[in-house]
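Sequence and structure are no longer studied apart. As an example, we show below a sequence and the tokens encoding its fold:
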Amino acid sequence: MIALQQEALNSQPHSDPRWPPSVYYRFLAAIAGRLNAKVFVELGTCGGGASLTVASRNSGTKVVSIDLDKYPQVAGIEELCSNFFFYKGDSIAMAEKLGPDLALIDLLFVDTTHTYEQTMGEYKAWLPYMRKGGVICFDDLYRPGMNVVWDALPSPKTGIHDLKRMHVGGSPTDGGFGAVIV
């Protein structure tokens, strides 16, 4: 994971100004590439920067993104990336609906409400659909309650301090990034 962090830091962000140049998007794309991921799932699309970066840099990866709302930038990703699929719905409920049809998930990115209850619910709902050796990434681990999530997750995991350069927040309670190997 640490070597992929450096790869992400050295790579260029997507050039389209509709999406922020966040380094952790490039980190996710690097993980997908290293895993030769067939399926990437993002919980919490928002503007879709993570999905765009993974889809555009890994054309052989099916990129599935789920959110309660469909933000305007999502249409841009649908135009640019034929391997991107958006689903509107609750991220926990969608696991049972979509999981069985996705084959096994290589990389899961959890980035929704950042509460203990929601995040642990998502983790438990999607874990049965992960392939052995797959990776689950979590964002905003410095937010209140997320340290409890991180402590509750099984090892092996790399995060918070080792991957702190992946998401540098604007405040002491923003930022933080972690990865769990399933």
User: Anything to note?
Assistant: The first helix runs from residue 2 to 10. The two ends are 14 Å apart (CA to CA).
